[in-house]
């Protein structure tokens, strides 16, 4: 296909560094990318990173400043090869497309990613970039399940298969943390100051989990190195927020047909975005407050709010909506009983577990979440929300249940959500889910096997100690779980369950 094509009257432009300046239908970077340099290495440059962190850097660089804070994206998985091919062909340019609820589409070409490396292709190139003194921050979005932790208690899992692999294969690691440890070891030997490690994943205390994974792995390599990292490397916490669906062929078609831009991997996202970061960067940082990032002394109240309200609600939508046969989030939000349940869960069982959040009205925040979930232009899928559910439920929902149990508060709404998850897995094990299939999950084999035994043992799913710890021994939770499980099994049980919970 040629660079310039014509379709339906539009001059068609294949996006790359040579053609971007000729684009007139979309906003483009207002800075000279050839003058920019890499200051940040990011592991996991998928859709969320490109809709969020890379967007903030692009916004900052568009002011003509901070051009030494460009991003090198790194993929660690074989399936990241497609991202490598797209980013290579497009000179790391891509289009961020905001979907406004009233129907407007707002595309903008993002240029802050300057380089993309696929670690399985050349681990040495990744390490060389990490050793570069110009790199002062390493960021990551490796998903909630990527932090080498046990789901039941969050402790570092020294027996994780990826940990064992990386210890045996130090020259060809699988995880971002093995790369970080080796790079810090080399920088220390060369007298180069360490970089800051900034997690951008949805985890309460994500900086602490990043520290735990890095130092836990380093201790296995060399305990002295692990202690040096504890003393010298900063791991600030951060709260990130922007709903970012997967890219579809329809996204590519709209961008091509309506704006004349051929982009193999555009990024759809909602207009809302938020990034709150603990200000702890000994080696320096870009002035991202100029681009809308909020730097604070303590991120915990903000991240707890977001995880236990937005992310927990996403789990409720995934499992209840999936049981109802819905495919998209906005479709599920049209059900008044599900909307009512979300509000009840957030106000009655999530809010009581939160700390005071400075400058935030929780009523407004929750009502805004309902509006965001209901955006009919997003077409976000319940399957995406349910992906990696074993880690997401353990991160977003189960801690709130445990906190309420410890305080003697009700857990009916949270127990019902777990029951819906267990029921969905039970139907998936039988191949009869109303919605399309079982979301990907590293624990799916164990979960499906346990869920299939629930007819004989209703608590079989809850007895996966690795996921639930001792919840199956907590009588108030067990009784609520069994009560709502029985309701879900009845005729029209899902809808009636939601109505009863909302009442």
- Strand fraction band? 5-15%
User: What is the helix fraction of residues, given as a range?
Assistant: 40-55%
Number of strands: 14
Average residue pLDDT: 95
Distance between the termini: 58 Å
| Helix-strand category | alpha/beta
Gross morphology is globular
Low-confidence stretches: 1-10
User: For the report, how would you describe the main beta sheet?
Assistant: 5 strands, parallel
Query: What's the arrangement of strands in the largest beta sheet?
Result: 7-4-3-8-9
Count of helices? 21
Explain how this protein is built.
It is a single chain. By secondary structure, the protein is an alpha/beta fold. The chain has a five-stranded parallel sheet, with helices on both faces. A three-stranded mixed sheet has the order 1-2-11, with helices on one face. A three-stranded mixed sheet has the order 6-5-12. Helix content is 45%, strand content 13%. It starts with a strand and ends with a helix. The longest helix is centred in the middle third of the chain and has 24 residues, at 300-323. The chain has helices at 47-51, 53-61, 81-89, 123-131, 161-168, 176-190, 206-221, 223-232, 249-259, 300-323, 329-332, 336-350, 362-373, 382-386, 389-396, 398-407, 412-429, 444-452, 465-468, 475-489, 493-502; strands at residues 4-7, 10-14, 38-43, 70-75, 94-99, 105-110, 113-118, 137-140, 196-199, 238-241, 261-262, 267-269, 274-278, 294-296. Mean pLDDT is 95; it is low at 1-10. It has 21 helices and 14 strands.
């Amino acid at each position: 296909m040629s660079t310039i094509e014509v379709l339906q009257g539009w001059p068609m432009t294949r996006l790359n560094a040579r053609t971007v300046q000729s684009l007139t239908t979309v906003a483009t970077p207002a800075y000279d990318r050839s003058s920019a340099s890499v200051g940040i290495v990011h592991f996991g440059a998928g859709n969320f990173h490109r809709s969020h962190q890379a967007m903030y850097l692009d916004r900052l660089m568009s002011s003509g400043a901070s051009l030494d804070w460009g991003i090198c994206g790194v993929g660690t998985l074989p399936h990241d090869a497609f991202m490598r091919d797209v980013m290579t062909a497009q000179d790391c340019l891509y289009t961020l497309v905001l979907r406004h609820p009233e129907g407007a589409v707002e595309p903008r070409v993002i240029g802050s990613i300057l380089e993309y490396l696929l670690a399985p292709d050349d681990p040495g190139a990744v390490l060389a970039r990490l050793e570069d003194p110009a790199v002062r921050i390493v960021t990551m979005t490796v998903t909630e399940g990527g932090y080498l932790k046990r789901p039941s208690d969050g402790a570092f899992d020294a027996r994780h298969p990826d940990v064992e692999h990386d210890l045996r294969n130090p020259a060809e690691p699988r995880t971002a943390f093995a790369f970080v440890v080796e790079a810090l070891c080399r920088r220390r030997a060369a007298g180069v100051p360490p970089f800051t490690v900034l997690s951008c994943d949805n985890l309460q205390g994500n900086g602490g989990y990043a520290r735990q994974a890095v130092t836990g792995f380093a201790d296995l390599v060399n305990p002295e190195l692990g202690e040096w990292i504890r003393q010298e490397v900063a791991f600030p916490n951060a709260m990130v927020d922007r709903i970012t669906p997967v890219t579809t062929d329809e996204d590519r078609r709209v961008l091509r047909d309506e704006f004349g831009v051929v982009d193999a991997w555009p990024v759809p996202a909602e207009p809302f975005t938020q990034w709150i970061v603990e200000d702890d960067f000994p080696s320096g940082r870009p002035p991202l407050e100029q681009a809308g990032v909020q730097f604070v002394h303590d991120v915990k109240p903000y991240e707890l709010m977001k995880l236990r309200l937005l992310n927990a609600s996403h789990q409720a939508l995934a499992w209840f909506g999936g049981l109802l046969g819905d495919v998209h989030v906005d479709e599920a939000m049209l059900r008044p009983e599900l909307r009512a349940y979300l509000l009840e869960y957030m106000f009655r069982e999530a809010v009581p577990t939160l700390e005071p959040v400075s400058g935030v009205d929780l009523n407004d925040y929750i009502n805004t979440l309902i509006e965001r979930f209901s955006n009919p232009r997003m077409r976000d899928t319940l399957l995406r929300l349910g992906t990696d559910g074993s880690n997401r439920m353990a991160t977003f929902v189960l801690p709130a249940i445990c906190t309420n149990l410890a305080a003697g508060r009700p857990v009916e709404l949270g127990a019902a959500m777990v029951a819906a998850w267990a029921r969905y897995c039970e139907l998936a094990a039988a191949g009869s889910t109303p919605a399309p299939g079982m979301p990907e999950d590293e624990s799916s084999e164990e979960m499906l096997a346990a869920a299939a035994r629930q007819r004989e043992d209703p608590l079989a799913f809850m007895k996966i100690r690795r996921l639930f710890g001792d919840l199956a021994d907590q009588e108030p939770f067990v009784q609520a779980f069994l009560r709502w499980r029985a309701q879900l099994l009845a005729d029209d049980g899902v809808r009636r369950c939601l109505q009863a919970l909302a009442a």
